[in-house]
User: What shape does this take?
Amino acid sequence: MRTKGTDRFFVVTVYTLLTIGILVVLLPFLYVVVVSFATKHEVLSRGFFLLPKQWTLDSYRFLMGERNFIVSFRNSIWITLIGTLINMALTSLMAYALSKRWLVGRKPINFIVLVTMLFSGGIIPTYLIVKTFHLLDSYWSIWLTGAIAPFHLIVMRSFFQSFPAELEESSRMDGCSELRLFWNIVLPLSMPAVATFTLFYMVQNWNTYFNALMYLNDSGKWPLQVYLRQMLIESADSSMTLVVEGFEYGPPVKMAAVIITAVPLLVIYPFLQKYFNQGMLLGSVKG
Assistant: This one.
């Protein structure tokens, strides 16, 4: 049996490790926040610090007045909203169909989905397909190439399989069509799954970078992540002086851009949290 001293040592060890982990995660984030409110001169002269001598909102004012940043922010919102709708519509419909044991060709299709988790089509073949369908410089090249995530599909399929068969049979006896059954009964009962994968897909679309870089040549259509890349390239050397419209551009602007980029997801998460906590256990009952 454990003694009180052993239990106390275990608790102290756990809390010590948790505290170290929190500091490892929190300190870089705090540094980014603090630097975004500091001046360029202070950042370059002091190096690492967690409390600036002079607080300023100049970096945020610059970004709010910078046309390219506003355009890319708007593009990211558009990509995220439409992309998430497409993702959830296709994923939920396909998962619901594959959850039916009477579906003809169900096993081969499930096998194909599983294979795509292990092997991708490759960058060059995917690019050639996008080019063949004339989707270059179109947001459809981003939405369609990432329309369904195989892992999300499999987990959601398992969730739908856990529904009682009696519930669906009684609905069909009442004259409910398959689509109406899915929309009016299955989806309302699947809010944990819907909220969880909506959040996952939103993060995926909001952080779109590689596909946008490959398929979008028009800088006016670039999302926020590509804009941040251009910002880093333009100011790769933190010691050089870059003046944009009278403002001395430096590390604080880049940090402010990172903070603004993270804010939308931080704002949305609390509204989905109550469903998200339940949704993390999806698919753990049936495989």
About this structure: The chain is about 70% helix and 0% strand. Strands lie at 242-244, 247-249. The longest strand covers residues 242-244. The CA atoms of residues 242 and 248 lie 6 Å apart.
